[in-house]
Design goal:
PGBDSf, Multidrug efflux pump subunit AcrA (Membrane-fusion protein), single chain, 41% strand, Muramoyl-pentapeptide Carboxypeptidase, domain 1, conserved putative lor/sdh protein from methanococcus maripaludis s2 fold, 21 strands
Length: 334
Amino acid sequence: MRRRAVVLVAVLAAGCGEAPAASEAPPVERETATVERTDLVDRESLSGTLGYADPGVLGAGVAGTLTALRAPGTVVTRGHSLYAVDGAPAAFLLYGALPTWRDLQPGMTDGEDVRQLERNLRALGYDPGTVDDDWDWETTAAVKAFQADRGLETDGTLTRGEVVFRAGATRMGEAKADVGDAVGGGRPLAELSATDREVVVKLDARRQQLARRGDEVTVELPTGETAKGRISSVGTVASRASEDADATVDVTIALRGRGEALDQAPVDVGFAVERSRDALAVPVKALLARQGGGYALELPDGRKVPVEPGLYADDMVEVTGDGLREGMKVVTAR
Protein backbone atom coordinates (compact mmCIF):
# COMPACT_ATOMS: atom_id res chain seq x y z
CA MET A 1 0.00 0.00 0.00
CA ARG A 2 2.82 2.40 0.89
CA ARG A 3 4.66 1.63 -2.40
CA ARG A 4 1.58 2.34 -4.50
CA ALA A 5 1.13 5.68 -2.76
CA VAL A 6 4.75 6.63 -3.43
CA VAL A 7 4.37 5.84 -7.13
CA LEU A 8 1.20 7.90 -7.28
CA VAL A 9 2.94 10.87 -5.74
CA ALA A 10 5.81 10.52 -8.20
CA VAL A 11 3.43 10.40 -11.17
CA LEU A 12 1.58 13.48 -9.95
CA ALA A 13 4.85 15.34 -9.53
CA ALA A 14 6.00 14.34 -13.01
CA GLY A 15 2.72 15.45 -14.52
CA CYS A 16 2.89 18.83 -12.92
CA GLY A 17 6.46 19.65 -13.87
CA GLU A 18 8.47 22.04 -11.73
CA ALA A 19 6.73 23.48 -8.71
CA PRO A 20 5.95 27.20 -9.22
CA ALA A 21 8.17 29.64 -7.40
CA ALA A 22 6.67 31.27 -4.34
CA SER A 23 5.24 34.71 -5.19
CA GLU A 24 7.09 37.69 -3.70
CA ALA A 25 5.33 39.57 -0.89
CA PRO A 26 4.18 43.06 -1.95
CA PRO A 27 6.45 45.82 -0.66
CA VAL A 28 5.31 47.29 2.65
CA GLU A 29 4.34 50.94 2.33
CA ARG A 30 6.25 53.07 4.80
CA GLU A 31 4.85 56.18 6.34
CA THR A 32 6.69 59.38 5.53
CA ALA A 33 6.66 62.97 6.69
CA THR A 34 7.95 66.22 5.24
CA VAL A 35 10.75 68.30 6.72
CA GLU A 36 9.04 71.60 7.62
CA ARG A 37 10.34 75.09 8.31
CA THR A 38 8.34 76.44 11.22
CA ASP A 39 8.41 78.12 14.63
CA LEU A 40 8.51 75.77 17.60
CA VAL A 41 7.35 76.75 21.08
CA ASP A 42 7.85 74.61 24.16
CA ARG A 43 5.11 75.40 26.69
CA GLU A 44 4.51 74.84 30.38
CA SER A 45 0.90 74.18 31.36
CA LEU A 46 -0.61 75.98 34.38
CA SER A 47 -4.14 75.95 35.75
CA GLY A 48 -6.44 78.92 35.17
CA THR A 49 -10.09 79.91 35.43
CA LEU A 50 -12.27 80.80 32.45
CA GLY A 51 -14.55 83.78 33.04
CA TYR A 52 -15.78 87.02 31.51
CA ALA A 53 -13.91 90.32 31.20
CA ASP A 54 -14.68 93.57 33.02
CA PRO A 55 -16.56 92.10 36.01
CA GLY A 56 -18.62 94.38 38.20
CA VAL A 57 -21.71 94.61 40.40
CA LEU A 58 -24.96 96.33 39.50
CA GLY A 59 -26.25 98.46 42.38
CA ALA A 60 -29.77 99.78 42.78
CA GLY A 61 -29.89 103.40 41.63
CA VAL A 62 -33.50 104.00 42.65
CA ALA A 63 -35.50 102.99 45.74
CA GLY A 64 -38.60 100.81 45.71
CA THR A 65 -39.63 97.22 45.07
CA LEU A 66 -37.63 95.22 42.55
CA THR A 67 -40.17 94.08 39.94
CA ALA A 68 -37.86 92.77 37.19
CA LEU A 69 -34.24 91.69 36.83
CA ARG A 70 -32.57 90.30 33.73
CA ALA A 71 -31.80 86.59 33.94
CA PRO A 72 -28.17 85.41 34.35
CA GLY A 73 -26.51 84.96 30.98
CA THR A 74 -28.66 87.62 29.28
CA VAL A 75 -26.70 90.05 27.10
CA VAL A 76 -28.01 93.63 27.27
CA THR A 77 -27.12 96.15 24.59
CA ARG A 78 -27.18 99.93 24.37
CA GLY A 79 -30.50 101.60 25.11
CA HIS A 80 -32.06 98.70 27.04
CA SER A 81 -32.78 98.54 30.77
CA LEU A 82 -31.15 96.17 33.25
CA TYR A 83 -33.94 95.97 35.85
CA ALA A 84 -37.23 97.55 36.93
CA VAL A 85 -38.41 99.07 40.19
CA ASP A 86 -42.10 99.61 41.05
CA GLY A 87 -42.96 98.46 37.53
CA ALA A 88 -40.84 101.12 35.82
CA PRO A 89 -37.68 100.17 33.84
CA ALA A 90 -34.45 101.54 35.27
CA ALA A 91 -30.72 101.61 34.54
CA PHE A 92 -30.77 101.97 30.77
CA LEU A 93 -27.40 100.83 29.44
CA LEU A 94 -25.25 103.30 27.56
CA TYR A 95 -21.66 102.82 26.38
CA GLY A 96 -18.72 104.77 27.76
CA ALA A 97 -15.75 104.78 30.11
CA LEU A 98 -17.02 107.46 32.52
CA PRO A 99 -19.42 106.36 35.28
CA THR A 100 -22.59 108.34 35.98
CA TRP A 101 -21.34 110.61 38.76
CA ARG A 102 -23.97 113.35 38.44
CA ASP A 103 -27.45 113.81 37.00
CA LEU A 104 -27.43 114.65 33.29
CA GLN A 105 -29.72 117.66 32.80
CA PRO A 106 -30.20 121.04 31.11
CA GLY A 107 -28.00 123.79 32.49
CA MET A 108 -25.27 121.46 33.71
CA THR A 109 -21.65 122.55 33.31
CA ASP A 110 -19.65 121.35 30.34
CA GLY A 111 -17.95 118.01 30.69
CA GLU A 112 -16.79 114.83 29.02
CA ASP A 113 -19.86 113.06 30.40
CA VAL A 114 -22.05 115.33 28.24
CA ARG A 115 -20.06 114.35 25.16
CA GLN A 116 -20.37 110.68 26.18
CA LEU A 117 -24.16 111.00 26.48
CA GLU A 118 -24.52 112.80 23.15
CA ARG A 119 -22.43 110.12 21.44
CA ASN A 120 -24.85 107.49 22.71
CA LEU A 121 -27.92 109.49 21.73
CA ARG A 122 -26.62 109.78 18.18
CA ALA A 123 -25.82 106.03 18.05
CA LEU A 124 -29.42 105.30 19.10
CA GLY A 125 -30.84 107.53 16.36
CA TYR A 126 -31.52 110.73 18.32
CA ASP A 127 -29.97 113.97 17.05
CA PRO A 128 -28.21 115.94 19.83
CA GLY A 129 -26.69 118.39 17.35
CA THR A 130 -22.91 118.72 17.50
CA VAL A 131 -21.41 116.04 19.73
CA ASP A 132 -19.38 118.05 22.25
CA ASP A 133 -19.01 118.86 25.95
CA ASP A 134 -21.81 121.45 25.92
CA TRP A 135 -25.46 120.73 26.83
CA ASP A 136 -27.79 122.79 24.61
CA TRP A 137 -31.43 122.74 23.52
CA GLU A 138 -30.72 120.03 20.95
CA THR A 139 -29.33 117.79 23.68
CA THR A 140 -32.51 118.31 25.71
CA ALA A 141 -34.71 117.48 22.70
CA ALA A 142 -32.75 114.28 22.03
CA VAL A 143 -33.01 113.20 25.69
CA LYS A 144 -36.78 113.82 25.70
CA ALA A 145 -37.18 111.68 22.58
CA PHE A 146 -35.10 108.94 24.24
CA GLN A 147 -37.33 109.12 27.33
CA ALA A 148 -40.59 109.11 25.36
CA ASP A 149 -39.63 105.94 23.49
CA ARG A 150 -39.02 104.16 26.83
CA GLY A 151 -42.03 105.30 28.75
CA LEU A 152 -40.07 107.62 31.02
CA GLU A 153 -41.07 111.07 32.17
CA THR A 154 -40.03 113.44 29.38
CA ASP A 155 -38.40 116.05 31.58
CA GLY A 156 -35.08 116.15 29.68
CA THR A 157 -33.16 114.95 32.75
CA LEU A 158 -31.45 111.57 33.18
CA THR A 159 -30.74 110.83 36.83
CA ARG A 160 -28.00 108.51 38.04
CA GLY A 161 -30.53 105.72 38.49
CA GLU A 162 -31.91 105.98 34.99
CA VAL A 163 -28.74 105.32 33.01
CA VAL A 164 -25.63 103.19 33.53
CA PHE A 165 -22.46 103.55 31.48
CA ARG A 166 -20.33 100.51 30.66
CA ALA A 167 -17.69 99.84 28.01
CA GLY A 168 -20.04 97.86 25.75
CA ALA A 169 -22.63 95.11 25.62
CA THR A 170 -23.11 93.71 29.12
CA ARG A 171 -23.73 90.17 30.31
CA MET A 172 -25.86 89.62 33.38
CA GLY A 173 -24.29 87.35 35.98
CA GLU A 174 -25.42 85.86 39.26
CA ALA A 175 -28.40 87.63 40.85
CA LYS A 176 -27.79 89.28 44.23
CA ALA A 177 -31.45 90.17 44.88
CA ASP A 178 -34.86 88.63 44.19
CA VAL A 179 -37.90 90.12 42.52
CA GLY A 180 -40.07 91.49 45.31
CA ASP A 181 -37.16 92.69 47.44
CA ALA A 182 -37.05 96.25 48.69
CA VAL A 183 -34.03 97.88 47.07
CA GLY A 184 -32.26 101.21 47.03
CA GLY A 185 -29.17 102.95 48.27
CA GLY A 186 -26.83 101.05 45.98
CA ARG A 187 -27.91 97.57 47.16
CA PRO A 188 -26.24 94.92 44.96
CA LEU A 189 -28.70 93.48 42.44
CA ALA A 190 -26.55 91.31 40.16
CA GLU A 191 -23.07 90.64 38.90
CA LEU A 192 -22.17 92.18 35.53
CA SER A 193 -19.44 91.56 32.96
CA ALA A 194 -18.50 92.18 29.37
CA THR A 195 -19.23 89.50 26.78
CA ASP A 196 -15.53 88.93 26.03
CA ARG A 197 -14.00 85.79 27.52
CA GLU A 198 -10.86 85.90 29.62
CA VAL A 199 -8.77 83.53 31.70
CA VAL A 200 -7.10 84.35 35.00
CA VAL A 201 -4.06 82.39 36.17
CA LYS A 202 -2.77 82.68 39.72
CA LEU A 203 0.95 82.68 38.91
CA ASP A 204 3.60 82.07 41.55
CA ALA A 205 5.10 85.52 42.15
CA ARG A 206 8.60 84.04 41.87
CA ARG A 207 7.89 83.07 38.26
CA GLN A 208 6.66 86.37 36.85
CA GLN A 209 9.22 86.12 34.06
CA LEU A 210 7.03 83.39 32.55
CA ALA A 211 4.30 85.89 31.66
CA ARG A 212 4.79 89.06 29.66
CA ARG A 213 2.04 91.36 28.45
CA GLY A 214 1.31 90.68 24.78
CA ASP A 215 2.64 87.10 24.76
CA GLU A 216 0.51 84.47 23.06
CA VAL A 217 -0.63 81.44 25.04
CA THR A 218 -2.72 78.35 24.38
CA VAL A 219 -5.83 77.54 26.40
CA GLU A 220 -7.24 74.03 26.63
CA LEU A 221 -10.98 74.41 27.16
CA PRO A 222 -13.23 72.03 29.13
CA THR A 223 -14.44 70.62 25.78
CA GLY A 224 -10.92 69.44 24.95
CA GLU A 225 -10.54 72.08 22.24
CA THR A 226 -7.52 74.38 22.27
CA ALA A 227 -7.96 78.13 21.79
CA LYS A 228 -5.43 80.91 21.40
CA GLY A 229 -5.16 83.80 23.82
CA ARG A 230 -2.96 86.78 24.55
CA ILE A 231 -1.76 88.04 27.92
CA SER A 232 -3.52 91.37 28.50
CA SER A 233 -2.17 92.15 31.97
CA VAL A 234 0.21 90.87 34.61
CA GLY A 235 -0.48 91.86 38.20
CA THR A 236 2.11 93.94 40.03
CA VAL A 237 0.84 93.28 43.57
CA ALA A 238 1.25 89.78 45.00
CA SER A 239 -1.34 88.25 47.31
CA ARG A 240 -1.79 85.06 49.30
CA ALA A 241 -4.92 82.89 49.46
CA SER A 242 -3.92 81.96 53.02
CA GLU A 243 -1.01 82.49 55.41
CA ASP A 244 0.59 79.21 54.34
CA ALA A 245 0.04 79.70 50.60
CA ASP A 246 2.68 81.02 48.18
CA ALA A 247 2.29 84.58 46.99
CA THR A 248 0.73 84.86 43.52
CA VAL A 249 0.01 87.52 40.93
CA ASP A 250 -2.99 87.53 38.60
CA VAL A 251 -2.19 86.97 34.93
CA THR A 252 -5.16 87.93 32.75
CA ILE A 253 -5.50 86.42 29.28
CA ALA A 254 -7.85 87.69 26.58
CA LEU A 255 -9.36 84.72 24.78
CA ARG A 256 -9.99 84.89 21.05
CA GLY A 257 -13.62 84.18 20.20
CA ARG A 258 -16.36 83.56 22.70
CA GLY A 259 -15.07 80.18 23.84
CA GLU A 260 -17.13 78.02 26.16
CA ALA A 261 -20.49 79.11 27.54
CA LEU A 262 -19.37 77.93 30.98
CA ASP A 263 -18.35 80.49 33.57
CA GLN A 264 -15.62 79.96 36.18
CA ALA A 265 -14.59 76.70 34.48
CA PRO A 266 -11.06 75.28 35.01
CA VAL A 267 -8.72 75.42 32.01
CA ASP A 268 -5.07 74.65 31.28
CA VAL A 269 -2.94 77.52 29.97
CA GLY A 270 0.27 76.90 28.03
CA PHE A 271 2.96 79.54 28.64
CA ALA A 272 5.95 79.73 26.30
CA VAL A 273 9.14 78.53 28.01
CA GLU A 274 11.46 78.26 25.01
CA ARG A 275 11.18 79.20 21.32
CA SER A 276 12.97 78.32 18.11
CA ARG A 277 12.02 80.43 15.13
CA ASP A 278 12.30 79.45 11.46
CA ALA A 279 13.57 75.98 12.40
CA LEU A 280 13.66 72.80 10.29
CA ALA A 281 11.48 70.28 12.09
CA VAL A 282 10.13 66.75 11.73
CA PRO A 283 7.79 64.58 13.80
CA VAL A 284 9.57 63.11 16.82
CA LYS A 285 8.75 59.60 15.54
CA ALA A 286 10.98 60.24 12.49
CA LEU A 287 14.13 60.28 14.66
CA LEU A 288 16.19 57.10 14.29
CA ALA A 289 18.71 56.21 17.02
CA ARG A 290 22.15 55.31 15.62
CA GLN A 291 24.46 52.65 16.92
CA GLY A 292 27.16 54.30 18.96
CA GLY A 293 24.96 57.31 19.75
CA GLY A 294 23.33 60.15 17.93
CA TYR A 295 20.34 60.32 15.62
CA ALA A 296 19.56 60.16 11.92
CA LEU A 297 16.64 60.54 9.55
CA GLU A 298 15.94 57.77 7.06
CA LEU A 299 15.06 58.73 3.49
CA PRO A 300 12.56 56.68 1.45
CA ASP A 301 15.45 55.12 -0.55
CA GLY A 302 17.06 53.79 2.66
CA ARG A 303 19.84 56.34 3.02
CA LYS A 304 20.45 57.79 6.47
CA VAL A 305 21.06 61.49 7.14
CA PRO A 306 22.77 62.21 10.50
CA VAL A 307 21.01 65.01 12.43
CA GLU A 308 21.30 66.89 15.68
CA PRO A 309 17.96 67.26 17.51
CA GLY A 310 17.14 70.60 19.12
CA LEU A 311 13.91 71.86 20.69
CA TYR A 312 11.05 69.41 21.22
CA ALA A 313 7.50 70.84 21.07
CA ASP A 314 4.03 69.56 20.16
CA ASP A 315 5.28 66.14 18.92
CA MET A 316 7.80 67.89 16.63
CA VAL A 317 11.55 68.23 17.00
CA GLU A 318 13.99 70.75 15.58
CA VAL A 319 16.74 69.07 13.48
CA THR A 320 19.97 70.27 11.92
CA GLY A 321 22.42 68.38 9.70
CA ASP A 322 24.35 68.44 6.43
CA GLY A 323 22.18 67.76 3.41
CA LEU A 324 18.94 68.47 5.26
CA ARG A 325 16.51 70.82 3.53
CA GLU A 326 12.90 71.91 3.69
CA GLY A 327 10.48 69.70 1.77
CA MET A 328 12.50 66.47 2.03
CA LYS A 329 10.56 63.26 2.71
CA VAL A 330 11.66 61.15 5.67
CA VAL A 331 10.45 57.80 6.99
CA THR A 332 8.50 57.77 10.24
CA ALA A 333 7.72 54.97 12.66
CA ARG A 334 4.19 53.62 12.63
